[in-house]
Every structure is written in structure tokens, then in C-alpha cells.
Amino acid sequence: MSAGGRRRKTEERFKRVLEHEYMPKAEVIPKEEVKEILKQLNAKMFQLPWIRSSDPLARAIGARPGNVIRIIRKSDTAGEFITYRFVVPG
Amino acid sequence: MAETKSMGPQEDLNNVLVQLAKILPPRIIDDLRNRLSNMEITKEQLANLTRILVNEYYKMLIDPGEAIGIVTAQSVGEPSTQMILRSFHFAGLREFSMALGLPRMIELVDARRKPSIPMMMIYLDEEHRKDPNKAQEVAYKVQLTTIENVTKSVEIDYINSQIIIEIDKNELNQRGLSMEDVRKVVERIKGKGARVEIEDNVIRVTLEEADIIKLRRVRDKIMQTRLAGIKNVKKSLVRYSERDGEWIIETEGTNLEAVLTIDGVDYRRTISNDIHEVAEVLGVEAARTVIMRELKKVLDQQGLDTDLRHLMLVSDVMTWTGKVRQVGRHGVVSEKESPLARAAFEVTVKNLVEASIKGEFENFRGVVESVLAGKYIPIGTGIVQLLMEFE
Questions:
Q1: What radius of gyration, in Å, describes the C-alpha atoms of chain A?
Q2: What backbone phi and psi angles, to 5 degrees, belong to A7?
Q3: What is the dotted CATH code of the domain comprising A22-88?
Q4: For chain A: N or C, fewer Cβ within 10 A?
């Protein structure tokens, strides 16, 4: 019983974490689109900034190692900024 | 241009803004919309304006090959020579220390495990943020309370081998606790063969084996037991924030994970100044934001004006690999590709020996190694390479 309670508490905390102001919006990019984006940036996949698959943000959107995710940050200078991160194991 | 006036300038403006949004960042678009909303403008003027705007925007962009890292190092390094060297001061009426100046800056870029003065800013939900008393209620829930905090006096009766604890009821009520809470905690930790008696606000713990050392040990253990609050949060202070126009709680000591689940806390805005903790609880992206904001805060406090974009670059580099790493020997520099660049930074011999054991290869692609070898550096015009076509 107590294990279930603890799990529920962890889930609740996780949900709260995702609503945090400092948590940017993010999504997993489909494979075909990744190619286009990499071409546009003139970069290889591993040259993007990384994010660990254990990261709360990556877990929230179900990103797996090898994926590329799009992050829409709130920026103090540009208002909103789109960046990409490559999901690595860990 | 009689036709253009009849087209509806507002509609026109919106069309142009949508087109511009593909090129310019949202901040500029919003600015433009606000400024043009109460202005009469012809189509011709609008076209002119957008042309100038886009032109200026592209002029402001950093050129390929610009040494932004060096510019950042200078822009952060120079102001830091003017910062105070002392690590903290006591601010306000109720001695509350905060790290600032150069030591805090070094702490941040070194990505130390624990900040010298870990702090949290706890924002409150709508029910609690308007009223200082209600905010204080939450503050007591957060702050670690041991039995010692609510005790008026402790005595040891060596003859009857008794520990006599007199509880301060005012203190207890203020923290929203009752004698029953205290009794439960004491019962749990008193050990075998001991009896607990409660008489109004006096707790007597009688031990069976009379031993001076044991009595003292049990007393200390009881005193340090947690009654309420969160581990690691040593102090909490309710403060009116002028900037936000509401009551907030500042704490000394951090435990972000636990605080987010407390009722009454606005878990959307509450934040810690411990970057590793934030990285663990909220992820790298949040840690990036915290590094940037903390650096900015230090500089602002010292009255120094460094462009935020430099600090963005620093925090971007620090969180590049998905983990927070320091700017230095154990972090950013240690992951450089070039063995010569690593050796040129710190601990030269060790780096060279290790590189040769592993059989590393030097490509001379970076700045440091190119300077060492007397080559052109890949910066500015040096980044351009020419291909010649032989006929």
C-alpha cells in the first residue's frame, strides 16, 4: 500500500515539475523533419546540444536516445526562441 | 495611391507582420504591433519600414567567424575585476546572508556541487500570497523544526535518571503544532525501556539504566529530532517582494523537490539557486535558465551592465552535454577535441602524457592549437577556405 502511495506522490510531483515556469515547451521531431532541420543548420545530429534521456523534460515527452527534440524557450531577448537538442542515453 | 487607402490598413499590417514573423523574433514583432496600432500609416510607408527593419536586423546579427567566445570572456571578465571580493554580507533586520560578488560568480561558472549559501525563493499560491500571516504558516511548514526549537528548558535528573523537557507552548502554537505531535516524536525515539510522561507542557522521559553518558546522549538525540518542516531548510523568512507585489518566502538551505509538493506553495515559480539541484529536479533547460539568471543577478547587484547574451552563451556551453559542467579543467576544457589545446590550459604534462598513451590525433582545427603551431586561426577571415580550380 505504502509503495503505491509513494508512487502516486512521485507522479504528483512529476506533474507539478512539468508545469514549472522554467520548463520550456518541447516535442519530439519526426525522423523526416530532422533531416530537413539538420540540413538547414548545416550540422550533424551529434553536433546539436544534447539532452539526457533521463532528463525530466525528455521523459515528459517520451523522447528516446537518438531522437531530436524541439524546444521552445522563453527568451528574455527574443521573446521566444526555438532550439534543438539531441537525446543521448544517460 | 488612392486605392491603397481603401484596402483597410489594419488588415494590411497584419499580413505584413505574419510575413515578418518568419524572419524576426517575436519580441520585435510584438513591439512593432504595439507601436503601429495607434498610428495611421500608408502602405508605402509600411513597406519602407519593413525594409529598413529587416535590413537593420540582419546588420545586427553576428557574422560567421566572429569570436563570440572571446568577446564573452572579455565582457564577463572585465566587470568581474570591479566586483567585491568578500563573499557575503548580512542584509535586512533578521540577519540573512546571501552570496554575492566575485565568489558567487566563480561558484557558478565552476559549477560547484553546493553553493556556499544555498537559497530558495518560494512563491505562494493565491490564497497565501496576499497575507503575511498566511505566508508565515507556510513558512513554518517549510522550515525545519526540531524539538530544541520549541523547548524552553531541558534538565537531567541524574538521581531518578530522568530527562525533563519543558516545552514552550507559544512557540509550539505559532508553528501550528501540538503537544501530541511532540509526544509522538519522543515516543518513537526514546529507545527501549523508557517511559514518557506528559504533564501540561513538561515531558519527563525516564530511563531504566542510570548512566550519565547515556542520559546525555538520549537528551541530545531528542533535541535534534525533526518535528516538522523539510530536511536541509535551515531558515525561512517571509518577505514582501516589491517586484512581484506579493509575499514570498526566502529560505536558507534548499530542498526543491520536497518544497514543490507542499500545499500553499506555487510550484510553478518556486526556484532554488543550486544549479545541480535544479538540473536534477527540473532538467538541463531549467538549469540553463538558472545559471543565466544567477549570473545576471550577481552583475546587477554590483551595478554592472553586461549584455544578457554573453551570459546566455556561458550557460549554453555549460549545459551543452545535457549535464551541468564547469568552465574549466574538469568540464568544458577537458572535453576539447585537441590534446594540445587541453595541455595549453592547465596541468600540461598530465594531459600530454595521457594523450600520447591513448594515441590521440591533433587536427589543428581550433584556435589554441593553431596559435601553438603558428597557423592561421579559424576565426574571422581565417574561417574561410579557398578551393582553387586548376585548368
A1: 15
A2: -65, -40
A3: 3.90.940.20
A4: N
Q: Looking at CA atoms only, how far is residue B82 from chain A in angstroms?
A: 25
- Is B235 inside a domain boundary? no
pTM, two decimal places: 0.84
The pLDDT-based confidence of B87 (bands split at 50, 70, 90) is low
B295 CA to centre of own chain? 9
For the stretch A13-50, pLDDT in tens is: 778 888 888 999 999 999 999 999 999 999 999 899 99
**DSSP annotation string for B95-116:** TEEEE-HHHHHHHHHTT-SS-S
Is residue B96 pLDDT above 70, yes or no?
A: no
ipTM for the predicted complex: 0.90
DSSP B324: -
Q: Chain A partners of B267 at a C-beta cutoff of 8 Å? A: 16-17, 19-20
The C-alpha atoms of residue B249 and residue B265 are separated, in whole angstroms, by 10
d(CA B83, CA B359): 44
> Is there a contact between B261 and A77 if contact means CB atoms under 8 Å apart?
no
B32: containing domain: 2-60
Note whether A19 contacts B260, CB cutoff 8 Å: no
Query: Looking at residue B209, what is its pLDDT?
Result: 72
- What CATH number does the domain containing B173 carry? 3.30.1360.140
Give, as one character, the DSSP assignment of residue B375. P
Q: Where are the alpha helices (H) located in B224-334, listed in sequence order?
A: 256-259, 275-281, 284-301, 308-318
**Residue B316, C-alpha cell as written in the block:** 549554453
**Which residue pairs, CB below 8 angstroms and at least 24 apart, start in A35-43?**
A37/A68, A37/A84, A41/A84
Single-letter amino acid, residue B128: H
Closest CA to B104 of B302, B314, B306: B302
Going by their DSSP bridges, the two strands A50-52 and A79-88 should be labelled as: parallel
